[in-house]
Amino acid sequence: MIVLLGTFLLVPVLMALWVSLSDWTGRGSPFAPGVSFVGADNYGDLLAGGGLQERDFGISLRNNAWYVLLVVPIQTAISLFLALLVNQQVLKGRGFFRTAFYFPSVTSTVAITVLWLFLFSSSGAVNQVLSVVGINGPNWFADPNGVVHNFLGLFGVTNGPAFLTDNSFLSVSWWEWLAGPSVALSAFVIMAVFTTSGTFMLLFLAALQNISPEVQEAAMVDGANAWERFWRVTLPQLRPAVFTVVTLGLIGAWQVFDQIYTGTQGQPGKTTVTPAYLSYTAAFQSQDWPRGAAIAFVLFAIIIVMTIIQRWVLRDRKVSRRRMLIVPRAGAIAGTVPGIGVTGDRKKEEER
């Protein structure tokens, strides 16, 4: 297994890393004598070059950051809600609903994208439904305006303050960073939530079925209502599942490519360009293989950093002595319920 992984995973990754540090033109071997080592020049052009390459990369990061910011929390919340719904014993036809919610996840991404292009066209079903309630729907996949800017425009705010318009990051002004996802990208956000919530629902459902009913019964005996049982009992025990769902959601959201390639190809106005798609166009269309590889490794670093941050946020925290003194009865109940242990120090504290 180590030999297989090394041959088909590690070696190509190391080759791509070398390409990102070289001036390889895509012809011949990247290890040929004519290929020179240029160090971090390709990364410098992306992150501090000041030209079109830096701006395109900044725009792609802006687009993808808003995509992640919206998709990951929404799909996590909806998948948890669906799991709680189909986990109810009183729900009739649970097997049907589980299959129905999961079905979009096994459908081809290309097919879903084509369907979305039809539904969200200017005369599509979505705008037809909106017209029924008196809303004039936008031309979704042809509107490059950010939804935040559109919202501010309702109040007459069309230009940002000088400290936002005059300062920039990656050649993109902070006013543009705060524009929000474009109307076109918003349709992709809805599609991502629609297609991935079913998969994560199954992960939450498996975790919910591993929670002992006696834990819920103990909380009910203690006088906890339904919301308190969910917030104080169920959700803490779902921490590993939440970590898995958020991690997979982050990785998938930062690597979005299929929808963009088959849908808009970065248009309108580059507002649906993502780093993954930009890496593809740089390498396979512009034949700038070092820049494409550099974008891929910057994206890899972003995913690693985001995963570490969310791992730190969702880490297990020790219960303080002050909190144990405030809620001693919870510790006593936990000591009597199978599956919830009480440490020796906590037992001594409760006895004291």
TrEMBL record:
It is a multi-pass membrane protein. The keyword Membrane applies. Residues 61-310 form the ABC transmembrane type-1 domain. Keywords: Cell membrane, Membrane, Transmembrane, Transmembrane helix, Transport. It comes from the Bacteria. Pfam families: BPD_transp_1. It is found in: Cell membrane. InterPro entries: ABC_transporter_permease, MetI-like, MetI-like_sf. The chain crosses the membrane at residues 65-87, 99-119, 183-208, 238-257, 293-314. PROSITE patterns: ABC_TM1. Belongs to the binding-protein-dependent transport system permease family. This is Carbohydrate ABC transporter permease. It comes from Lysobacter korlensis.
